[in-house]
Each structure stands twice: as structure tokens, then as C-alpha cells.
Amino acid sequence: MPILSVLIFLPLIASLVVAFSPDQFKAYFKWFTLGVTAIELAICIYLYQNFNHDVADYQFLEQLDWITLPLGNLGIGSIDYLLGVDGISMPMVLLTGIVMFVGALSSFQIEQKERGYFSLYLLLTGSVIGCFMALDMFLFYLFFEFMLLPMYFLIGIWGGPRKEYASIKFFLYTLFGSIFILIVMIALYLSVVDPVETAVRIGLINDVSEITPQIITEVQNLLKDLKIPSEQIVHTFDLRFMPDAGNFLPDSWLNILSGTQIFSFSARALAFILLMIGFGIKLPAVPVHTWLPDAHVEAPTPVSVVLAGILLKIGGYGFLRIAYPIFPEVATEYAFVIVAFGVLSIIYGAFNALAMNDLKKMIAYSSVSHMGFVLLGIGSLTSEGINGAVYQMFSHGVLSAMLFLLVGVLYDRTHDRRIDSYQGLANKMPLYTAMTAIAFFASLGLPAFSGFIGEVFTLMGGFNSPLIPRWLTAIAAFGLVLGAGYFLWTLQRIFFGKYWVRQFEGTLEDLTFREKSMLYPLAILAFVFGIFPHLIFDLTNATISELLKLF
Amino acid sequence: MQQIPDVIREIPLNYYVWFSAALFCIGIIGVLTRRNAIIIFMSVELMLNSVNLLLVAFSSYKADPAGQIFVFFIMAVAAAEVAVGLAIIVMIYRNIQTIDVGLLNKLKW
Amino acid sequence: MNAIIALSLFGISNLFLGFLNNRKILLPATLVFILIALGLNFADWNHEYYWFNNMLKTNNLSVNFVTIILLSTFLVVAISRSFGDDDEHSHPAEYYAILLFSAVGAIMMVTFENLIMLFVGLEILSVSMYVLTGSDKRSLRSNEAALKYFLMGSFATGILLFGVALVYGATSSFDIHGIAQGVAKAKEQMGGAYGPLLYSGVILIMVGLLFKISAAPFHFWTPDVYDGAPSIFTAFMSTVVKTAGVAATYRILSISFPSVYGLWGNPLVYIVCATLIIGNITAVYQQSFKRMLAYSSISHAGYLLITVLAKRPETNSSLLFYSLAYAIATITAFAVLMVVSEAQAKNGKADESFEALNGLANNNPLLAFSLTISMLSLAGIPLTAGFFGKFFVFSDAFSNPSSLFKWILVIAILMSTVGIYYYFKPIIAAYMKKGEVAKIELSPLYKFILILTTTLTILLGLAPDLVKNIF
After folding, report:
1. What secondary structure letter does DSSP report for A159?
2. Domain span at residue B19?
3. Which CATH number goes with the domain that contains B80?
4. Cβ distance of C398 and A186 shorter than 8 Å
5. Domain count, chain B
6. Tens-place pLDDT, residues A195-221
7. Is some CB atom of chain C closer than 8 A to the CB atom of B92?
8. Domain membership flag for residue B13
9. What are the tens digits of pLDDT across the range B17-74?
10. Cβ of A182 and C312 within 8 Å?
11. Strand partners of residue A77
């Protein structure tokens, strides 16, 4: 059974079902959505169980020809429907399953325009999960862009008072980034040749299934000597072929040997930088992070959860899936710059978080800071660093989801997110206090919680890396202290002391059953993954060692 | 009838080109500076006529009838254009009793 | 090419149909006429024929362009709703006839083999459009638009003709292939340089045609004319006229003047950049949806010209695909604009501002959805036809080795981001702003057209190779 396709198309079809079902089923939309995301989660867990830890290559591959374009004397363009997961995407797929399920639970509070909301939510689910599994760059880009639309509407229609501003800012920022990715994608597409299809075209083999490594080498040699007529060349978006320098046309822009210069910049360096900006906006890295606080503040709770929990990870995932394997030598050259931006994000995000009075903004900036660690880990180009970065993405996905849910709990009751509006909540809401404490401690990197593992490994990577100076990593480590600072200070201000809430007459209820059912599992996950980090590292290790061979 | 091209050829080709260019430029300047719709329209006609002159001159010098045929097409089509154009101008005059394009400002430029 | 003859006859018979007292028959009759013409057009597929003493030539490229033109005409006629129920002042028979005649002009502009036919086709199209622009006789805006269009249009024709005359002087031919030979010969005689006749001739021809497709800096008449003309004819102008104009420009530049690429290519670079920048930036400031669409049509002329400029073998198909995607999306947008602005009319005047769309989604989900898809397609968001249109155009620019194209690409990409901002304004208004639009009753045909264009836009976004392989 094409299980990955099911994962994508189940929510997409469900979204259509919701969009076209009559109004009298309104009350069941949320249950339907919850059911669909539960099935998704179950499939993700099934995938996780059946994932072969020792194989570095892609698994559960599905390939279909989608679009074949004749390009005249440029050859033939081929876009495939190509899905697969490897050690880098598997944790992300699992994370998507978890966060989307929790987000669906949290969406029960949505009380207006349910049809539109749940339809868009399911659409978002499908496109996000597709983004993590697409191995054709075009398909990846498609999902990458397409997820912006439901997100845009989810923020823009169900958001807070400044929703229009926030949603269009979010949209323009990420779209601006994705246009950079589009440029690189076109350049890559014109440069990269699919050796398998080309072999079929020039008659070396009769069918794709007969391919052997020898034939691929033969095609690559023919390419190098310009012996293949250009009409016979099959251009491809296939990410599996892009890391191999032999598949680049000899005179193309992005061939490593052609040394094309654009605006007195090496074309490959330029392409890498464009990708870094594109994905950096999504991550978000300072200085292109400013859309994030606005989007978070205005977004409804479940959308914040999805945004922080999954969408930010696509930036980091894009680095590892596209930018790094295709441009390894540029990545090595610019390691310092990338890590410097990572460290800047860590410190700048942390200081901002320290200064914020709005809980959601505080958490948004803590996200910026935490995603800085991902940049640090990836930039270090060490096994610890990259493994740590993937781990940090997973862990931050779980924890930021939890943090935003916790803010949502408070906001639902008082419609006030200011930190200085609360005091001594511990007396009235003991369970809530406990959950917040767990989330805060896990986020600030207390050992035995997942945040600790991610941060420690990325820092280890930074210190071990020959490419970046020690002092830079040391500054990043200082970010941990700041993190502890803002989390503990917030904890102290809100929960300790005498009970007082600004302008609120009623009594504050403790967690309801629905809230418990969202928060408890996440807390348990943070704990379990903190104690058994190999649950993730086992997945990522083989793939990342393979990736590092490119450098 | 045979002599007409010869008559035309008595004047050097360059003179025709410069003369038509001058007429054409006068037409352009008229379109750009005048404000009365009729005068603008006449300037446009002047441009078309400079084209006709040029085509006829080239046609005679090259001994190629195609240029003169083109002139007939231009004349015929210009007549159709005049019909529509004058109708539009009359329509405007009926509505606002003026044909000064400067006073037409319902639509911002 | 029998389509030309058929359409002219149909136009005349439409005028006679106007004498009947039954107006209901006009709309279906015109639609059938266009479908017949479309069928006749397909008969030319895979045949290269010269028609009317080498005046016109059909090949697969021209058949494709004619298909796009006739399809656009079909869609525009289908959403015309018989030009309202106002019996005294509307003349549906004449309007339909003129639409058919102008389609003839457009077809001549994409099949011409001789500059005489280019001129005649252009004039048929333009004169028809002057009439249609001014068809709302009691509205001063419509009058003003017609006058401006007429003066600017005939001015542009004059420039074009002077260019034609000069090129004739340099090459002694009106035949586009003859001109190409003449140009080569002239170039040889001058030792690689261009004579002043040829030089100014090519530039003037290009300027004359760029006036018609409203590329900056020759665009200033466009917003006023598009704004003032009745919406239905604006839809026609921004699709059929634009497609025909771009096709004619491409045809003459690529067939007659490929050997003097430097001569027209260099100015065109600046024109493309100016068009993209002016079209997009000015569109941002518009308060009126219709005016925004006018500026958007200017900016799309810029994208279309990129691929003309890139001069790749793929230019044919990119141009076709982009025109098709653009035409379908624009007509959808105008279809929505027309009914909404009428429903929101104040004091009998249609409200064409963005505010008119506020809260459209509440009672009219189909209209809001079609509007969204068309805006996304114009903005070039994936899974819509417009995305692939942009994708092909950018690929063409990319594969041209000249370094100028990198600058064009940079500008085009920046400007398509700007584009997203203003294309989202109607979407924001329809879904997010508070407002009330009463439920608008749509005729079955209108609904069908909206669904058809929306489906086509998405279908072409999912499987562009469906048509790209034909083009």
C-alpha cells in the first residue's frame, strides 16, 4: 500500500469532505478532524516502528511520473511525484503527526466558521506532511508554498485584532523567501540531469528497473564529454540526484567545475546564500524573524501550536535536505557565517524574550532563540551537531506546542496574556502550574528533559567543529543562561506570591479534561525523549553519517 | 501615367524622407501639445499622411507597387477611423459641450 | 483560416439577428458562432498554409494563439449577460457583432505574413474597441475613456506606420520573411552596421506595438481606458487585445528582425524592467479593483515581454501558456467584479472599489472562491496555472546566457512579490473584512463559466503538460 500517499491524501480528501458537507453536520467537524489526525498519527507511529534504522537511504519510496515537459533543444523536463523518508525526515513526520493531533484537540474551542477552519486545518496537515516527505524538489516547493495559504487564512480569519497585518506580513515574508528558493530551483533544474531517465532515452537500457551503478557512471562520463545530444537530456528536480556532482551538465551554472560568476559571486555560493535566506526566513533566523512574533500574537492557539511546532522546522529541514547536500563545499566555506547567525538568533531571541511582557511574544522569541541552536548544530558540520539539530527540532516541536497550549489555557479564561497581570496562580491552579513548570524547565534545558539533549549536542558539535572558533560557541552557551533567566523569572512572576489577577472577577478553573489530554501526553513525551534520546538518534544517525561523507 | 514615377524621382529620395519626417514630427508635437480633440485628431491625420508620402516616394524609387497599395489601405482604414473618431467627439460634445481634452478629468491619469 | 471568413459572416448575420424581436437568441447564437469558428480553426492543425496571396499564414503556433483568442472571446461573450436588460440604450446585436469583428482583427494579428495585414488587423481590433469603450453613451467616464483610447490608439498607429514605411525603405518589402532577407542584405552592405532607416523603423514599429500592449512608458492611457470602459469590454481588452498584441510583437520581432537583436533587444530590456516596476508598484496604491486589474495587466505585459526578449526556442510555448493562464484568470476576476459591483451599486453607479468586495464570502462562496483562485493564479502561487506561466517565463530568462537577464530576473522576482501584496487585497476583502454583500443570483451559464475557468486554472496548475505538450 502506498502508505506515504495515504498520509498526504487522507487529510486533503478529508478537507474536501468537510468543505462540501452540509451545515447540519457542523457539530461533528471537529470530531471528524480529530479522527483524521488520529489516523495520521497512527500511520506515523507505524512508519516509525517499521523504519529500518541501519539504512541511510530513503525508505518507503513511491514514484510516479507526474509532469513531463518538452523543452525544445534544452532536452526534456521531468517532474516526478516522488515520496520517501529517511533519517532526517522521519522524526519530522512523527512530529507532524503528534503536533497536528494535539492541534486538532486544541481546535475544539473554535466557535465560528467551523467548516472553513477545519477544512483549512486538514489542508494544512496534508501539505505540511507532504513537505517533509517530498523528494522531488518541485513537489517540495509546491507543498512549501501551498501550506502558506491555509496558514494565511487561519491567522487572517480566526486571529486576534491585528490579524490582517500579521497574516499578510507572515505571508509576504515567507513568500519572499520561497521566491529565492524558486530561483535556485530553476537553476538546479536546468543544471541537473536525471541519469536514469537519460540512460533510457539514449538507449543504454530499456527500462528504469535495469539501472545499475555502472550505467549511471557511464551516463555521467558521456555527459562530461558532451556526448549526449541536448534533446535527449532529461532534466530533473529529483533531490536524490542533486548531491552527485556528476549529474550536473558540464557547462551549466551550478556545475562545481564551471565556476560561473554572477555579479562577481560564484554562482554556487549565490545559490546557497539564496537558499539560506529562503529557509532562514522560515526558521526564522535573526534578522528576518520579525514576522514570527506578530504571527504568533495574532494567531489562535491551535494555529500558534502548529506554526511553532512544525512550520518553523521546515526551515531547518530545508537546510539539511536541500542546501547542505547540494552545496557542501559552499556550506563548509560559509560555516562561520551560518553559525554566527545562529548564535545571533540565540542571544538576540533570548534578550528579547527577557524583555517581553506578552506571554506569547515571550515564547515566540524563545522559539527564535531555540531555533538558533538548530542553525548552530547544522553549521558545525559535525555528527553531534547535526544529530543534535534534528533532535532540537523535534524537541522544540513538542515543547513549543506545549508552551503555546499553556498560554492558550490562560488566555481562554481571562483574555489577557500580559505577564504582569498575574500573580500567585500556583494557589488556584496547581495542575496548570505543574504543567507550566515542566514545559519551562524542559525548554530551558534541564537534564532529563528533551530540550537538554538537543542543546547539549548542538553545543558539543559547535565546540568540536574545526570550522568555527570556540568563542562563538561559548557565546551560544551563554544563551542557555539567558534562557534559564527568562523562563524562571516568568515562572516566578506568574505563579508565586499572593494570588492576584488584573481585572478578572471570576474564579480561575484548573485544567479541564480536554486540556489535560493535550498537555499530559506532551509532558510525558518531553520526559521520555529526554531520558531515551536514542529513540530519535537511532533514526537520524545512519543518514547523517552518510550526509557528512559529502563534506 | 508612366511619367508619374519619373516626376517623383526628379526630387532626391532624401528630401522626401526628411520632409515626411518633419511632417511626422509636427504631427507628434501637435498630438502632445494641443488640447482641442479635433486638432489632436488632425495632427494624427498629418502623421498618417506623412507616412503615405514616404511610402509613395519609396515605392517610386524602388519601382515596387506594394508601397502604393499600402497607401490605399491606409487611406481606407483612416477613413473608417475618422468616422468612429468623429462620432466619439460628437458624443462628448453632446454631453459636456466642449471638446477640450484638458477638461476631461473624470478619470485621473 | 476559414475562421476569419466564418467570423466575419457570423458578425454580419448577428447584425441581422438584431432585427428579430427576440433578444434571447443572440447570446447562444454568438456562442455557437464562436464554437464553429474554433472548430474551423482546428482544421488548420498540422498544416502550414499560406492564405490570400501570401497575406496570412497558419501554422500550429498561430492555431494555438487563435484558440486562446477565441476561447477568451467565448468566455467574455458568455459572461456578457446580453448586456443588461436596458432595452433602450443597449444594442446587444451590435456589440456581439463588433466583438466578433474584433476577434477577426485579433486573428489577423497573429497570422499575418505581410505588414499590410498586421495594420489592417490592428485597426479592425482597435476601431472596434474604440466603439465598445464608448458604448456606455450616457456615462462621461466611458466617453472620456473612448476619446483617450481613440486619440492614443490612432497616435500609436501613426507611429507604427511610420516605422513600417521606414523599414520598407530599408528592405523594399512588406512581407515579414522578405523583410528578414532585406535586413540581412542591408546589414551586409553596411558592413554589419544598421542604416538609419532600418534603425528608426524597427524602433518605431516596436513602439507602436508596445503602445497597444500597454508596456511602460507607453502605458499611461491604459488605466483610464480600462477604468472607464464598461467592465465586460475591459475584460475583452485586457485579454484578447493583449494576447494579440504580444503575439504580433513576437511574430514580427522574431521572424523579421532576429538578425538585429541588439537593435530592439537593448531598448526592450529597459522597457520590460520599467513595465514590471511601474505596473506593479502603481497597482499597490489603487483603491479600485478595476484599476488595479488595469495595472496588473500592464505588469503581465512585462512578464510576457521577458520571454519575447529571451528569444529561446521555448518562447512559443511559454508565451502561449502564460497568455492562456493570464486570460482565464483575468476573465474570472472580471466576471466576479461585474456582478459584485452591480450588486453593490450606489446611486445607480457600480461600485468597483475593493470595499465593494467586503464580506463577499459570507453569502456568495462560489464568487469568493473563484475570485481567490483567479487572484492566486495572477499572483503566481503554485497549483494554479499562473505559477507555471511564471515558471516557464523565468526558466526562459534563466536559460538565456546573457547577463542582462539576471537583472531582469531579479526585478521580475521582486516585482512578483509586490504583486502578491495587491492580489491579496481582494481576497482579504472577500474573506476577512466585515461587510455585507447580499446573495447574488447567478444564471446557470454564468455559474458554469465561473466553475469552468476556476477548474481550468487549477487543472493547468496541476498538470501543465496537458497543454504545454500541444503548444
Report:
1. S
2. 3-101
3. 1.10.287.3510
4. yes
5. 1
6. 888 888 777 777 777 777 888 888 888
7. yes
8. yes
9. 999 999 999 999 999 888 888 999 999 999 999 999 999 999 988 888 889 999 999 9
10. no
11. A69, A235
